[in-house]
Design brief:
Layout: H1 4-17, H2 29-48, H3 54-69, H4 72-75, H5 80-87, H6 105-127, H7 136-155, H8 160-178, H9 180-183, H10 186-203, H11 225-250, H12 258-277, H13 281-294, H14 301-339, H15 343-356, H16 361-373, H17 377-389, H18 393-405, H19 412-428, H20 438-453, H21 456-472, H22 483-495, H23 502-510, H24 519-537
Length: about 550
């Protein structure tokens, strides 16, 4: 964020420096004091609020460079030591000590040493988090002093002692730079690197001056950050895709979500926001505060993003594990509505269950039953087929019955195959649909399709099995269904004659009609007519 007060003072500082370009003889004391005071005000602002934009920093560096380059216009005309005695400026305010910038080698070495000590102290404060950013101004001062020192070493004849002192201080500077990964975080180092690049653009240092080209080192573990970042992005994409899939399942039909669906969506929405938030600046700032309190090293922050993304991924997978249970909740709500003749509500609940759990054979079967009640045979056939794929013996039975009722001989073999498959489902597994009468229905319908195909022996065998299953249920006579006896009577009449079929005709006419199979009414009427014909013949 731009500090307007700082921008104003930098502008004033630039205007004051304009007097330097007019020549040394025209420079007045007021103009010198205006320059020095303008720089003082900038320093006061920076000490109160260390925030400074890259653009402001660039302007300030350029103006300071301009002041140092044209400092002779001040030094020639005025005694800065006398001015210092009057105003008592801080020793850190180098602009009051312009004449000392051009000093001998020993003094420059001493200044280099003091700045390195100051840098070491400030880095310790950064490490202890009592200082919020790296001391870039001190580092820049070190670079400039090292430039001056190099100039002195080139122009003068340094002693061996002086050269050894310089080498020792250079090693210390390099060591301090190497400690930056331990004393700071990656964002602070990145900011310093950007500033360092700006300094090189402004001052255009000699390529042989290594101090200008010493990169701020990263922690060795940070070398893998690009891999961790890629991993975090991959997990983010995966988590968002899972969230969108879950969202589409809940919103895939028109029925209300209910509290179960609403709660699940809220939780998953929070997980999706958290997964995306760890890659935003705001999310990272919150995460960094938490990790700082926990004492987790900064160079493990990227790995932490992957860790959080992995935890969220596991939670999404856990959501997928409970989707069948949530679908079951909607399914039983649909059954309740169906039993209470609320067919529209039941259809919506079944669809919601299937949206959450597409491989739900019971829901496909019940939806097929509902469509059959609504005379939507094509839709019922689709749902029964899906239920058959899930192992529903009841769906095999109902779909086969639809094919038999179609009176299309081409569909009879398919119906027979479906019924055999339904019987196969029951060999090792209980009925998925909880239908205790499913054995009876499967064998009855298999006998029926055998009759349609003219396979009378097989028809007789299967119809007798159906009657045996019903007898095992120990139902009262009024509760026994008519279908199997009626069909067996038709088979016996064709193979052995109507006299042999009399017993089954009587059972057929005395049995109860299944309201879900209207064809039974026709069979019962036929049986009664045949019994009447026999009675008349006698």
């Amino acid at each position: 964020m731009i500090n307007p007060q700082l921008s104003e003072q930098i502008t004033n500082y630039g205007k004051a420096l304009d007097s330097l370009s007019q020549g040394t003889s025209l420079l007045s004391l007021d103009e010198v004091l205006e320059i020095l005071n303008a720089r003082d005000k900038i320093q006061e602002i920076l000490e109160k609020d260390s925030s400074i934009t890259i653009e402001q920093q660039k302007q300030l560096i350029e103006l300071d460079y301009r002041l140092k380059k044209q400092s002779k216009a001040i030094i020639i005309n005025y005694d800065l030591s006398e001015l210092r005695s009057s105003f008592s400026p801080s020793k850190n305010n180098w602009w009051w000590y312009l004449e000392q910038l051009d000093v001998n080698t020993n003094e420059t070495i001493s200044r280099y040493k003091k700045l390195l000590i100051q840098l070491a102290d400030l880095l310790e404060k950064v490490k202890q988090r009592s200082l919020g950013q790296l001391p870039s101004q001190v580092i820049l001062d070190i670079l400039l002093v090292r430039d001056l020192l190099q100039q002195n070493l080139t122009e003068q004849s340094p002693t061996t002692k002086e050269m050894n002192r310089v080498r020792g201080l250079d090693r210390k500077f390099k060591t301090l730079l190497k400690t930056l990964p331990k004393n700071s975080n990656s964002s602070q180092r990145s900011s310093l690197l950007r500033e360092w690049e700006n300094w090189r653009d402004i001052y255009q240092p000699n390529n042989n001056h290594w101090w200008w080209f010493s990169n701020v080192p990263a922690h060795w573990w940070d070398r893998f950050d690009i891999l961790w970042n890629l991993g975090a992005l991959f997990l983010l994409a995966l988590n968002l895709s899972l969230f969108l899939d879950i969202l589409s399942r809940f919103l895939g039909s028109s029925s209300g979500l209910g509290w179960v669906g609403s709660f699940t969506l809220i939780v998953n929405s929070f997980l999706a926001l958290l997964s995306g938030g760890i890659l935003t600046d705001f999310g990272q700032s919150i995460m960094n505060r938490i990790l700082n309190k926990r004492g987790i090293p900064e160079y493990f922050r990227q790995e932490f993003k992957v860790f959080i993304g992995g935890i969220i991924l596991i939670l999404f997978f856990l959501t997928y594990q409970i989707l069948p249970q949530i679908a079951n909740h909607y399914y039983y709500q649909g059954l309740y509505d169906y039993q209470n003749q609320k067919l529209d509500n039941a259809e919506a609940k079944y669809k919601r269950a299937l949206s959450l759990y597409p491989d739900y054979p019971q829901a496909h079967y019940s939806l097929g039953v509902l469509y059959e009640d609504l005379q939507q045979k094509d839709q019922a056939e689709i749902q029964y087929n899906l239920a058959v794929q899930g192992g529903s013996s009841a769906a095999s039975n109902n779909l086969a019955r639809l094919y038999i009722l179609s009176e299309d001989p081409k569909k009879y073999p398919v119906a027979a195959s479906l019924l055999q498959k339904g019987i196969g489902f029951l060999i090792n597994n209980p009925p998925l649909d909880g239908n205790k009468n499913i054995h009876y229905s499967l064998y009855k319908n298999l006998g029926w399709v055998n009759l349609k195909q003219g396979n009378y022996e097989q028809a007789k065998e299967n119809l007798e099995k159906a009657i045996d299953f019903e007898n095992q249920m120990q139902l009262e006579a009024s509760q026994k269904r008519a279908a199997a006896p009626c069909l067996l009577a038709q088979v016996q009449e064709k193979t052995d004659g109507i006299i042999v079929a009399k017993e089954m005709l009587e059972k057929c006419s005395n049995s109860s009609q299944d309201l879900n199979t209207p064809e039974e009414q026709q069979w019962i009427e036929q049986a009664k007519q045949k019994l009447q014909q026999l009675k008349e013949k006698q």
